[in-house]
Write a structure and sequence with these properties.
Helix 7 (about 220-235) runs parallel beside helix 8 (about 275-285). The longest helix is centred in the last third of the chain and has 19 residues, at about 300-320. It is built from 9 helices and 10 strands. It has helices at about 20-30, 70-80, 100-110, 125-135, 140-155, 195-200, 220-235, 275-285, 300-320; strands at about 5-10, 35-40, 85-95, 115-120, 160-165, 170, 185-190, 205, 245-255, 290-295.
Length: about 325
């Protein structure tokens, strides 16, 4: 199976308008990208103490302005602007929203998009945002697991019933069900042992970031080692390792200039010439990666659209 590419978007910077988001999504669809993702923040504190886990030093780029469209509303909008592109939450912070209402919103997006939703999930990192939303930060891992289990029950059972410390319902009617059966694919983000365990237990794919400060996966060799650990974990849990896909989000923009990884030992993934990017795709596919989400870059909307089009012509089209 050939590797599939997606565009990873942040709802700030150039993407602060209806027209810009629509143009980027439609350009990605034309260029042959398989999916497009939207990030997730609801509210940002004026003073942030939590460290962002994917930058050197923990600085988060949106800390000063805090601009963020609601993720699920944005995906619903993009569903109406596109016809083929799959729509990924990357990632949805599961404890931020009440579980039954969230399951309904996600099912609605899947139905109205014609079955194009991918649910990327994580437990979250910004303690201050949890406090503002009244969500439990200390228990976010167990809450995430319970909510995901509840989603699956609501999406698959005719008279859903579920009971746990964090979610309870019985003999309810939940319609419509998602179009995708048994449910939209769940990509579990994160690189921690808890995240890998969640992927094995509840996910259809593991969805790590390439430059986590705790476990950098910024070369195919490092990623291969992590994938081997994931497969051993799946086998120990009694799950067929082949049933768990691997998807990767590349958290630095793809661009046609060479950049080095943090320790200077190798070229950063999806930088350099188009031939270098094609080689990166081949190397990742060889170690078991099925999907790659590329962070959208460009100093302007025009730059970003040109990057999307060029990658489609010079990398995606050459792999077909």
């Amino acid at each position: 199976m050939m590797i599939e590419f997606g565009i990873s978007t942040l709802s700030r910077g150039i993407l602060v308008s209806r027209a810009a988001y629509m143009q980027v999504a439609q350009a990605a669809e034309r260029a042959g990208f398989a999916f497009l993702s939207v990030n997730d923040h609801v509210i940002v504190p004026g003073h942030l103490g939590s460290a962002y886990p994917y930058t050197q030093g923990g600085a988060w780029a949106a800390a000063e302005h805090g601009h963020c469209f609601d993720q699920l509303t944005t995906l619903a909008f993009l569903a109406g602007c596109t016809s083929r592109l799959r729509l990924l939450t990357s990632v949805m912070v599961v404890p931020h929203r009440p579980p039954i209402a969230t399951a309904k919103m996600l099912a609605t997006i899947d139905v109205l998009s014609g079955g194009r939703l991918i649910l990327g999930v994580g437990a979250g990192w910004m303690k201050e945002e949890f406090a503002l939303l009244g969500a439990p930060f200390a228990e976010r891992g167990t809450v995430t697991d319970a909510y995901l289990e509840a989603f699956k029950v609501l999406w698959t059972q005719q008279r859903p019933t579920y009971a746990s410390k964090h979610v309870n319902f019985a003999d309810v009617i939940f319609e419509p069900k998602p179009i995708q059966k048994p449910h939209p694919p769940i990509w579990v983000g994160g690189e921690s042992p808890a995240a890998l365990g969640r992927a094995v237990k509840l996910g259809d794919a593991w969805y790590p970031g390439n430059n986590s400060q705790t476990k950098p996966l910024d070369t195919p060799a490092r990623l291969a080692t992590a994938i081997a650990s994931l497969r051993r974990l799946a086998q120990t849990a009694g799950r067929d390792p082949a049933s768990l896909a691997v998807s990767l989000i590349v958290q630095n923009p793809f661009e046609w200039a060479v950049h080095k990884i943090a320790d200077g030992s190798a070229r950063r993934l999806f930088t350099g010439a188009s031939a270098d990017m094609a080689a990166d795709a081949a190397a990742l596919q060889a170690v078991g990666v099925r999907h790659v989400a590329l962070r959208l870059g460009g100093a302007s909307l025009a730059d970003s659209l040109e990057c999307i089009d060029r990658f489609g012509r010079e990398v995606i089209a050459q792999k077909r």
